[in-house]
Amino acid sequence: MFGVWTTGVDAEARDRAGTAQANAANDAAAPQPGRAGPRVTLLQHRVVPYESLEDIAKRYGVTVEELKAWNRILKGKVLKAGWNLKIRARIVAPPRKKTTYTVAYGDTWGEIATRFNVPEGDLHRWNPKVARQFRAGQRLTVYTNPKPRNIIAVSAKGEPKAPEEEFAENDEPLPKFDVPGGGVSIGSPNRGRLSGGVQLPDSDLYTVRRPEESWGSSHTILQLQTAIADFRRDSGYAGELLIGAISLEHGGRFRPHRSHQSGRDVDIRLPKRSGASRKSDSQNDIDWGASWQLIQSFAETGEVEYIFLDYNRQKRLLEAAKDAGATRSEIEKMIQYPRGRSKNAGIVRHAEGHLIHIHVRIKCPQTQARCET
Description:
alpha+beta; Membrane-bound Lytic Murein Transglycosylase D, Chain A; Muramoyl-pentapeptide Carboxypeptidase, domain 2; 3 domains; four-stranded mixed beta sheet; two-stranded antiparallel ribbon
């Protein structure tokens, strides 16, 4: 199924570029005399309750012996929560943070532990007063454990863009996508059409709701497949990802939508929590952690103009971003909330009615002069 569209993103080139930039970002410590040293980043780690030296060493790609050599406090002493350790990390991960999680109906201890990437046993130890059979509405203390991520953005030509944060590279390569060329957006999303449209193919990465409404420009279809493949790889989310409307075969007026006319708009239903009904419209059935990662994967392509989500739901997205260890600058760049629904801020913008799905708008390629923003 997979081939290469030579005018789009070359996955192998993207991986090579990502490796080079991740290594450059991590080149912060002096090498040993007489030879090149490992590329590392100097950082500080605050120990969380029940964390072990082995856990910390694995998280940052170092050894227990190195941790002890860098931190005198560890010599002959038992590790204690709250200690700040100096680390010359070979893998850079977002910081672990203490947060409070409100149990939703249908939650299990195992699902919550998986969501925050922590051992279920630790989750119980952090909450000794909470019964094994908890109830919806109860609040749990969680020390988040965000996974390392590669957020190096790549342009449509496969050229790396400077990363804003340092993360370790995921070594698993993305698949190559065989996207026919010639699909061109003409005009604007609200008053435009599609020439030589490309239909989104079936895939085990997603489910196409209505094939007759899944036509887009070559650029859009490539970015859509690339972002979803990146999301699946980095998040480990195994649930269904439902793709809604894109455009009609030739674009143009597409009721009841006001946009979706030029093959650049994509509706995607937000990922559901495990066990949630496919038909549920409740925001409590949305996996907001996975939703944040999905939105990140699109933003990291560098080819997204906006992502629309109802302002009232952006608060849940913000909470998920914080739980994942996102920095303040990253959140401000990504999410409009809480600055007001009419504020021109963030990639994620308010659009009324977008309660359980996002609307992703892909940028115009520089090579398509008749495409209008």
